[in-house]
Amino acid sequence: MYLTREEERIYDGEYGWAYQVSMRVLAKLGDLYGAERLIPIDSAHIAGVAYRTIGDAPIEFLKVLADSGGKATIQATTNPSSLDLGNPSFTFLPKEFVERQMEIIGLYKRMGLEITLTCTPYYIREPRSGAHLSWAESSAVIYANSLLNAWTNREGGPSALASALIGKTPDYGLHRSENRRASVLVKVGTDLRSESDYGALGIYLGEILGEKIPVIYGLSRREEHYLKQLGAAMATSGMTQMFYFGGKEREEPNIEEKISVDERTLKRSYERLTSTSEKPNLIFIGCPHCSPEELGIIARRLKGKRIRPGVKLWVCTSGYARRVAEEHVKIIEASGGQVICDTCAVVTWLRDLGVEAIMTNSAKTAHYTPLINGVKAVLAPLEDCVREACQE
Ligand code: F3S
């Protein structure tokens, strides 16, 4: 890969170890994927924040990076951690977990990253159309490419961090227009009515698409939060990083591969995402983190209701959304629900918090919690989740 004179100096260590190792990571990636050069990016989004999922191994590396003066040179945001320190439920976790988590956050802060602790950085600051980004967090990557026309590959934590320090990314994959074309036509022949229907479809498609980009026709509803669920789920069960969508099917003469989805496909996907018939003791909404508008939808459903004893309702979101949707937050909390920031059910210690089974409207969560947390799940639309959480 071609490096400019300045990039070569960084590569040779003239600006210190943190920048040198970052440049070497990017150059290696570029060589592996056949990039010809590095291109400037508008922002980076860093995953690898939650202590529950990354463990102790990367902490030493982050320490050396910070000690050798590594600082973000562009806007860089951070994915959720394993804790909401503002919420009393999390104070029961072992002190050691809390200290290690705070150490990781402190290291990112020293490196100049914004401690946003959310998987939906696009609600805080929406990238401009056509912007090149270096984002880790698969749900945010597919959202940025498909709904915002921002251009990003699905980065890992280390490469996104390297890009945050250098301000550039190798020019390959979805940074190039020739790689952003759809190659599969998906025809949805059943009415998708809820965000969990969109998620169930996404899990099915992710499994069969591999890295291919689909154009999906027949989506009866195209609200932003429905499409967010579709993308997050596709990127969970597969490597798809982008999709196109429409209502009525159009001719796509250049696409030969076609997939049809019917009611039975969706039903099977729900069955696979429902791993228990036990009564859930946690109802979890907010994967990916809720937008201020979604907090409004939930608040309207909960107004005047009470959460049943023995059940918790968690609504996960960013600190930003919590602040701007304060009125909705008050209604949710008045019902006995908890609006939780900076973490989510998947990346925290669910079992240590006493959770045995969950019900969620997120197919991504229903897919992950049995695997990652050892907690079984039921996938259901938001209205069923609210009904289950509330007293009659
Ligand atoms: Fe976000 Fe946690 Fe889901 S990080 S995408 S809410 S698994």
3D architecture notes:
The protein is of the alpha/beta class and 392 residues long. It is 42% helix and 15% strand. It has helices at 5-11, 17-33, 51-54, 57-67, 95-110, 121-124, 138-147, 157-166, 195-209, 224-237, 263-273, 292-302, 319-324, 326-334, 363-373, 382-389, and strands at 38-40, 43-46, 75-78, 133-135, 168-170, 184-188, 214-217, 244-245, 257-261, 282-290, 312-317, 338-341, 357-360, 376-379. A 5-stranded parallel β-sheet has the order 12-11-10-13-14, with helices on both faces. It is globular, with a radius of gyration of 21 Å. The model has no long low-confidence stretch (mean pLDDT 96). Bound molecules: FE3-S4 cluster. FE3-S4 cluster binds next to strand 10.
The gist of it:
With 392 residues, this protein is α/β, with parallel strands linked by helices. Helices cover 42% and strands 15% of the residues. Helix 2 packs across helix 8, helix 4 runs parallel beside helix 5 and helix 9 packs across helix 11.
Measured on Cα atoms, how large is the radius of gyration?
21 Å
Report strand %.
Answer: 15-25%
Helix content: 40-55%
Average residue pLDDT: 96
Shape: globular
Total beta strand runs: 14
C-alpha end-to-end distance:
64 Å
Can you write the helix and strand succession as a string?
HHEEHHEHHEHHEEHEHEEHEHEHHEEHEH
The main β sheet shows up as: 5 strands, parallel
Which kinds of small molecule does this entry bind, naming each only once? FE3-S4 cluster
Largest beta sheet: strand ordering: 12-11-10-13-14
Low-confidence stretches: none
- Number of separate helices: 16
Computed structural class: alpha/beta
